[in-house]
Every structure is written in structure tokens, then in C-alpha cells.
Amino acid sequence: MKYQLLLSCLTLFAATSPTALYAATLTVEIGNIPDATGTIRVALCTRQEFLLPNCFYHAVVPAKTGSVTVTLPGINSGTYALQTFQDRDGNQKLTRNFFGIPQSPFRNSIWWVFRRRGA
Q1: Average of pLDDT values for 57-86?
Q2: Residue 36: inside a domain, yes or no?
């Protein structure tokens, strides 16, 4: 693979709203983006959703050479992995070659456990 998105920063902020007692906001900075073609697609997935096309928490932002920052609000406590890729052709999925090897720049995180404070 020629390029790979670099997950350069993953930060969890506690939600301050009393109605979102069990929720948090996740801010992610995706770096090492090779060009401004297409969009950057970010998905925060449970084990059951991982590597499937529709994770509950997701965002799409315009691609920008260098890095972009993405915010995912309302994240409940749980165990998640972060999936990111650059959708250069606008097909809304990770483009793969005949052998299944990704052709779009991508990055998957390790598993993260998010817990509300005091839990």
C-alpha cells in the first residue's frame, strides 16, 4: 500500500450535559493524509460492527492534505475500535483490489474501552 492514514490523536472528553450522563464526545485527529481528494470517513465500531459498512457512530469530512479533526458526540460507555479511510472515488466504501487488498488509504485502531467517570 502506498499511503496509510495515521491515527495521530484519540481523545475522549466527558460529556457535561446531565441528559447525556452516560455519553461522551470523542475527538479524533487523522494525520498523514496524502491529498485532498474525496472525503475522510470515520467510524467508531463495536465488536459486532467492526469491518462492517454501517457502524452506529460515524462521520464524514472533506479530505485535506495533512490532517483533519473529527468529532463524534454522544458516545456511550463500551468497547470500540476506530476505522478510518479516505474515500477518493466517492463510493462510500473502502476500495479493494481483486485480492481484497485495500486501495484507499486506511487505518484501524486498537480496541478502546470508554467508561463514564466514576464507573
Answers
A1: 92
A2: yes
**How many other C-beta atoms are found inside a 10 Å radius of the C-beta of residue 41?**
21
Nearest Cα to Cα of residue 58 among 36, 78, 47, 74 = 74
**Region for 53 from its dihedrals, namely left if φ exceeds 0, alpha if ψ lies in -120 to 50, beta otherwise:** alpha
- What whole-number distance in Å separates Cα of residue 64 and Cα of residue 78? 30
Q: Which amino acid, 31?
A: G
What pLDDT digit, counting tens, does each position of 26-37 carry?
898 998 899 999
In 15-89, where do the E strands start and end?
23-33, 39-45, 57-62, 66-76, 78-87
119 in any annotated domain: no
> How far apart are the C-alpha atoms of 114 and 119, rounded to whole Å?
10
DSSP secondary structure code for residue 45 in this structure: E
The pTM (predicted TM-score) of the whole model is 0.72
For Cα atoms 23, 25, 28, give the angle at the middle one, nearest 5 degrees. 145
Residue 1 lies in a domain: no
CA–CA dist 36, 81 (Å, integer): 25
When divided into structural domains, the chain yields a total of 1
